[in-house]
Amino acid sequence: MAEGYGVSDGRDAREQPEISLVLATYGTGHDLDRFFDSVIAQDDDRVEIIVVDQNATDEVRDLCKRYANELTIRHMTAQPGLSRARNVGIARCRGAIIAFPDDDCWYPAGLLAAVRQQFARDPDLDGMTCRCTDEHGRLAAGGDGRRPGPITKHNVWMRGVSATLFLRADTVRRVGFFDESLGLGSSTDFKSGEETDYILRVIAMGGRMIYLPSLRVFHPLPPTGCTSGGVARSWSYGLGWGRVLRKHRYDPLQLVYHFAYPLLGSLVALLRRDPALARLRIARLLGRWQGWRWRPGLSISRYRWLQR
Questions:
Q1: Which residue of 53, 67, 253, 281 sits 20 to 30 Å from the alpha carbon of 302, by its own alpha carbon?
Q2: Model confidence over 244-276: pLDDT tens digits?
Q3: Is there a single domain that holds both residue 209 and residue 235?
Q4: What is the CATH number of the domain that holds 168?
């Protein structure tokens, strides 16, 4: 899976790490040093960061070396593809808990200690997620539910943000690797859904997962505005969503909900005289529908009216 393999071990990890952070990174403009600084602020030597670098330059490797005296960082490379890169990282994890931070997220102080405590006092717990917000508490991804509770097949779409996902390593070994046909950079058109698919596989094998909104992972707010790129992105994300609905055999009533929600949202946007937002939501609806009934050759370009 890996194109090349290199290790930049910072602190001498004489103790087995308790938490492995699998961080896949691709492209430029991501504030990796902000994430590294936030891990240092956890004040915890029992953490390793597995950086899976999908870039052709040495920029990320050099940054890892600069933090080598403060963090245990293992640097390796992989071909582009988020799920593929995470699978490369999973194969090298040594911790009892595995997480999958985004390359532009960062952790508030005390988060990893709280995660470790949650797993320690609940030995039957397979995994957990939390809220994903910016540093001001504004929702950045997933749902904004404030009540804790189990993650189910119905609510996983609002509670299953990958940057906030923490799993027992034993559970990961049982479930296996991410589906490489899903997610950003995959060789298919399904540019989302890999983390939802993974959590659903945990649930399907009888695993128990919970959502704890009292904890947070920080993440920049997503871009706003309706551009041709934004419409195409909304459509391709919808494709991944629909593909997961099909893969996990959602029943007709659940399908109605997943298709009706963006349709109603687009109607609300039109009533509010916001055609740009309506186009984004219609693109999401079309993506979900086409992802569910997938056939090769579909393209957003056939919907030129969406990108006016």
A1: 253
A2: 999 999 999 999 999 999 999 999 999 999 988
A3: no
A4: 3.90.550.10
Q: Is 186 a member of any domain?
A: yes
Torsion sign (Cα): 47, 48, 53, 59: positive
DSSP states along 55-99: -SSSHHHHHHHHTTTTSEEEEEE--S-HHHHHHHHHTT--SSEEE
| Domain of 154, in residue numbers | 4-218
DSSP 150: E
- The tokens describing 70, both together, are 């403060």
Average pLDDT on 233-242 reads: 91
Residues 203 and 288 in one domain: no
Residue 9: count of CB within 10 angstroms of its CB: 14
Q: How many domains does the chain have?
A: 2
Residue 191 CB neighbours (<10 A): 21
Encoded tokens for 102: 């985004």
